[in-house]
Design a protein that fits this description.
Blueprint: E1 10-12, E2 15-17, H1 19-25, E3 26-27, E4 38-39, H2 46-54, H3 59-65, H4 71-86
Antiparallel strand pairs: 1-2, 3-4
Helix pairs in contact: 1-4, 2-4
């Protein structure tokens, strides 16, 4: 279980997202997507959204590809990923 820090917030388009808001959008369920985190009510994995952002797609372009998503879902995906890096729950080459 991911434990969020009290200071967690991410600002996109002038709106801050806090822990409770992230939890309203991101779910991890062993019965969905092999237990990988996804957007609540969908089978769209957080990794898919992050991949799209890293490819340079805007929020509007991602929503065009996945019309069920809202901007808050994308914001929650980014905030969730940011929190994972704070918790050192990630894989990287150590130099």
């Amino acid at each position: 279980m991911l434990i969020f820090h009290n200071y967690l917030s991410l600002t996109i388009e002038g709106k801050k997202m806090i822990q409770e808001e992230i939890e309203n959008h991101v779910i991890t369920d062993s019965r969905l997507c092999g237990g990988r985190p996804c957007i609540r009510g969908t089978r769209i994995e957080i990794a898919v959204i992050l991949d799209a952002l890293s490819e340079g797609l805007s929020m509007d372009e991602i929503i065009d590809h996945y019309p069920v998503l809202k901007k808050e879902d994308i914001q929650a995906a980014a905030a969730y990923a940011a929190e994972l890096t704070r918790e050192n729950i990630w894989k990287a080459t150590v130099l």
